Amino acid sequence: MLVVMEAAARPEQIEAVVRHIERMGFRAHPIPGAFRTAIGVTGHGGKADPTIIENFPGVKEVIPVSHAYKLVSREAKPDDTIVTVGGVDVGGNGIVVIGGPCAVESLDQTRIVAERIKEAGGQLMRGGAYKPRTSPYSFQGLGEEALEILARVREEFDLPVVTEAIDHESLQLVEKYADCIQIGARNMQNFSLLKSAGRARKPVLLKRGMAATLEELLLSAEYIMAEGNYEVMLCERGVRTFADHTRNTLDLSIVPAIKRTSHLPILVDPSHGTGKRNKVLPMSRAAIACGADGLIIEVHHKPEEALSDGPQALLPEAFAQLIREVDAIAQVLGRSLQPALAAS
Ligand code: PEP
Ligand code: MN
User: Fold this and answer.
1) How do residues 228-252 score in pLDDT, each as one tens digit?
2) pLDDT the model gives residue 46
3) Which of 44, 60, 63, 265 shows the greatest Cβ crowding within 10 Å of its Cβ?
4) Which residues are in the CB-under-5-Å shell of ion ligand 2?
């Protein structure tokens, strides 16, 4: 259920509705929008009585929400959400490009790549500290040492950091060191991890599971928001199909579908989406052309020596080219690259 307040509703009127909803044993989620505030009502079992809420001063209407997901939906919030990651806005009219290695391998490697990301105009840095690998014998990431490296590099280059948490323990550490918590494809339906991310005080980048539908992705985002963390970004990273010319099949049609159903920003990861360096640039162009709010791109200065995902990593020069092309495409759509943070 969604309570839509009048545009002129006063804060104390909103507060009175919130208190009533909570007295009835539900959770109230005030969602301020450009034109009005809505209050999402969530909870298990039973329904709050709409006829009582309708009569509260300042209430315009109470609408039942037909989908299983509520807080993520355009019904709850018609205007686009902008999530701020370490001072960089994601969503709205700007386009962001997150660049960096699959995994943090050393301070030197991370510094070299970060410098090139910044020079090229990338606004955010990625790099895995905890790597969910298919084989237990593959490089698993440097853990907290990698988080320390990322935090150091962020200070040096003014590049806010996005990095993955794979379990509760790593989530606490990622929340402490990084600017954004990534939940990877393999954990998209790890509901207890999603709830913990929902209680964290950092934005969350939620990647689509490799066999997840749009509704399942949105319900996973709903888990995070239902716990009170509204700073959620979605990411398409390819799904499993019979096609074997790429690592995954990048499902770009989910971008306009998400834009219709949800107010959350949606990014695209053509690196994992294709698994092949030579397909990252064309699919990046296409992602921006179909309305994505940004890209997450793996970059390595020596991909042949990378400890993970070398075949899909771009060289820094190719990353710079990608940013130039993406910027040109964004202009056609009346959008532009989000400015990077100024060096401090
Ligand atoms: C990653 O971005 O490092 C990653 C492991 O991606 P995904 O969860 O999409 O496989
Ligand atoms: Mn990777």
Assistant:
1) 999 999 999 999 999 999 999 999 9
2) 67
3) 265
4) 102, 309
